[in-house]
Predict the structure.
Amino acid sequence: MKDKYYHTRESVEEYIHLAKDVSGKALIEKLRKYLLPGSKVLELGSGPGTDFELLSVDYQVVGSDMSEEFLKHLNRSYTEGEFLLLDAVSLETTKKFDAIYSNKVLHHLTVEQLEASIQRQRDVLETGGIVCHSFWRGEGDEVFKGMYVKYHSIDDIQSYFSSEFEVLVLERYAEFDSDDSILLIAQKK
């Protein structure tokens, strides 16, 4: 669902400030166990660029966002980086990747959109490619600051991905509160 929150300079600056102490460092550490250095990685929803920077230490990363305001920020902050204007559902790119990474991005998709995204992710991954995604754990959905948010269970994530991917890691973890998040690492079948 397209929202307006990430599409104004003011909201992007607000989000960057709110997320300044948040990173996917622990997620990326787990990903390193399954993905060789030098691999080509597509990051969905690069936002402020925190995880893009961490991923770039070991991988050839192409960042993306569906917000032109975030892309302006990313291009200013990471002048050597490559960034695509990309919707997480349609993933309109001809590039192929060894991995796709997102940190709390795919929860903005409805179940139908997520299922379409999973199919498209499979298409843009090389043989044996890896996905690494985090989700908010819980039930139901809500609109937060004008943005759609869908909460998921471990069983939900397992069912969405298992037909196209072999699940390697599927676990709860704490981002702010105990067990408020889910980490998935899976390999293309």
Summary: The radius of gyration is 15 Å. The beta strands are 40-43, 60-65, 82-85, 97-103, 125-136, 141-144, 147-150, 165-173, 181-188. The chain has a mean pLDDT of 93.
